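User: I'm preparing a small set of examples for a lab meeting where we compare how different chains pack in three dimensions. I only have the primary sequence for this one, and I'd like the structure in token form so I can line it up with the others. Please keep the answer compact; I'll paste it straight into my notes.
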Amino acid sequence: MNKPVRVILLDQAKEEYHRLNEIVGRQLERGKNHTEEMQLLNSIKQKIELVKSNLFYGDNIKENLIPKKYQVSNLWRVELSQFWRMIYTIKGDQVEIICFILDIVSHPEYNKIFG
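Assistant: Understood. Below is the structure token output for the 115-residue chain.
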């Protein structure tokens, strides 16, 4: 039996996702197409769907390299457009599996987090 998979955006990731949605909404109202923000938002949506269909889609970060700020035992990285990164962890029980998106960050911010 396959367990259902949910994806939940937390904290910074949720804020960044909503910020991008607002920017893209304003751009669409002004008739803009194919902006960097639109590409990034579409990339995030596409990667979330890929993670839903394959939990292990991203690159696994070795446990000894997981920054303490995350306080998780497993961490995965997905590359997005424009060198952005999406960081997630996987939790599960007998009923379902949940992927928590912890961060959506630019490449320079990713480098700060992971050194």
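A couple of notes for your slides: The domain at 5-114 is CATH 3.30.2310.20 (YaeB-like fold). The chain has one domain: 5-114.

User: Perfect, thanks.
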